[in-house]
Design brief:
alpha/beta; 3-stranded antiparallel sheet; binds pyridoxal-5'-phosphate; 11 helices
Length: 354
């Protein structure tokens, strides 16, 4: 039954974000940038310590155990951390809180496609400057008047990382706007912009447990900034839903943060696999950006990316492909275990007759 026009005009209708597929059968899953390794061992211990009898009580609305663990880990105050149900939750609250002007928010034309969805959802005006021909963000495009700025670093799906002087340049040119740096992949890349928080009162950095901490299924993300902006974010959160983080997420998240050695090892393995995989792909004639994330953004001059995507899917190897004009000939491939990447390479070698 179609919704009548009289009703439709009173409804907030949106075109939603389309997440990567979560197939239920066994596949080589390289399509949503999950981590192929399990979370730190302490997470299991934390889960085992949960008593379902406690589930009758609401969790701590301030998420203190997790906020404390993160504050200690990054050497910042507890009043400088905000946690949410994945960074998608944190970022959407950031749009609602910080992008509240009639001037357009700026983000790249090729980037995390959720930004556009939130802007539409909250009716925030936006402008999307084009990346350059090498898929890099042009800093000069962010010198114009705006209602806020957001971009991922490394950017997605291009995987390109910009050094901190680039971030600082954008911050300096935008003293009167909030600048959000979405660092979903920074642990695989280099220095975090978090070290600039004391210097720029307009900076917010967001990160997630979904990629580098192997906990996409637990839904934990966070923002780090100065206490004033974190307070603004909390005020909006408490006007929305006080109890966003489950008891399980709080203690599992805290346990994961405390195991720094496991974390570093996990990152090292993925970066090693990524660099080895780059060489193997290059030998097969693939071209790709200088990936500093846990995924590669690749094309092959002799293959149609859409067709290759379908062939891979047929072979039960899932990667990501978008039909956007500018990136139609590219695939985004998550870095999995070496064994998973070998399966993909075997397929590609056979296709190439090698
Ligand atoms: C994965 C991702 C996120 C969100 O991840 P959550 O699972 O919601 O924490 C945010 N931004 C970018 C660029 C991402 O790739």
């Amino acid at each position: 039954m179609a919704v009548r026009a009289e009703l439709l005009e009173k409804i907030r209708t949106v075109e939603p974000y389309v997440p990567g597929e979560q197939p239920q059968e066994q596949v080589v899953k390289l399509n949503t940038n999950e981590n192929p390794y399990p979370p730190a061992r302490g997470v299991k211990t934390a889960l085992d310590s949960l008593d379902p009898a406690d589930f009758r009580l609401y969790p701590d609305p301030a998420s203190s155990v997790l906020v404390q663990a993160l504050a200690e880990n990054y050497g910042v105050g507890e009043d400088q951390i905000f946690v949410g149900v994945g960074s998608d939750d944190v970022l959407s609250l950031c749009f609602l809180t910080f992008f509240n002007s009639s001037k357009p928010v700026l983000f790249p034309d090729i980037t995390y496609s959720f930004y556009k969805v939130w802007a539409e959802l909250y009716r925030i005006p936006y402008v999307c400057p084009s990346l350059d021909s090498g898929f890099r963000i042009r800093r000069e495009d962010y010198y114009r008047e705006n209602g806020g700025i957001i971009f991922p670093n490394p950017n997605a799906p291009t995987a390109i990382y910009e050094e901190l002087d680039f971030i600082e340049d954008i911050l300096r040119h935008n003293r009167d706007s909030i600048v959000i740096v979405d660092e979903a992949y920074v642990d695989f890349a280099g220095r975090s912009a978090m070290e600039l928080i004391g210097k720029y009162d307009n900076l917010i950095v967001t990160q997630t447990f979904s990629k580098s901490r192997s906990m996409a299924g637990m839904r934990i993300g966070y923002a780090v900034s100065n206490p004033d902006l974190i307070r603004c974010l909390n005020d909006v959160k408490y006007s929305f839903n006080s109890y966003t983080m489950s008891r399980a997420a709080l203690i599992c998240g805290a346990a994961a943060v405390k195991d720094q050695e496991y974390f570093e090892n996990n990152i090292r393995k993925i970066v090693e696999t990524r660099e080895w995989f780059k060489e193997e792909l290059a030998a097969l004639g693939f071209e790709f950006t200088d990936s500093r994330a846990n995924f590669l953004f690749v094309r092959h001059p002799a293959y149609d990316a859409g067709q290759l995507f379908e062939e891979l899917k047929e072979a039960r190897i899932y990667v990501r492909h978008w039909n956007d004009e500018k990136i139609r000939q590219y695939l985004r491939i998550t870095v999995g275990t070496k064994g998973e990447m070998e399966k993909l390479l075997d397929f590609l070698r056979e296709k190439a007759g090698k």
